[in-house]
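re the bet — no i am not wrong, look at it urself. input seq straight from the record:
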Amino acid sequence: MVNPWLSLAGFGMTAIGFAALLYWSKYKKIRPLFYGIGLLAWFLAILIKVVLDFTLTSSILNLAPREHRVLAACLYYGLRTGLFEAGILYLFLLKLKIKRISFEDAVGIGIAYGAIEAILTGFSNIVNILMFYFVPELIEQIPEAQREIIVSSLNLETIVIFAPIIERASALIIHITSAILVVLALKYGLKYLLAAIAYKSLVDGIIPLLQSLLANPSVYNYYITEIPFIVIAILSIIVLGKLKDKLIQNIVSNK
């Protein structure tokens, strides 16, 4: 049996993406260019990661001894995300040679990055759950090794819908913080780019450690897996004030 109310998680994730874009566009009036930069940087980073997953990822991870496979996955997925997501955005901004990027513009880049991810993830969630609900025989076509996990996740209690919504909200804050660090790298040097890479690497590097929980779907496990990202997001909000002051200081000094 599929719980169709679980699709509310997808609507919530999508709402976060659209709400962030609409709010920032209405109250901050940033140039559409910066949304475009965020979207294009996100697309290229994801494209490269998808290509790697279809070609080299398995071979790279298989080089590690079996007892160190989880650690290898943490390092690989973490560094890959940090290098591509922060690195590509840095190269875009460097080549465009934009003279003035305000704090609001930098936040807009991060919002575009996180919003498109939230919208597409949410839409995928809605489609998958409703597809299995209206066409349940499709479940039989899932490979047996994965079927039990998917069936269990489709039958969870409705209260679990807040976990992925919290995840997208946390991810949005993380993308914003990373974007500001990359912008600061243009103003103050590569130490901020290295900070952005390390920051994004930490976030995605945690995920392989949580796979054992996600392989046993339950309301408890879903919420437990969000704790590291909630903590990172809260700490990021605290740091954002200092990053804002640093970026504003540079803008004022360049006037």
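see?? The CA atoms of residues 2 and 154 lie 5 Å apart. told u. also Residues 103-134 form the longest helix (32 residues). so pay up
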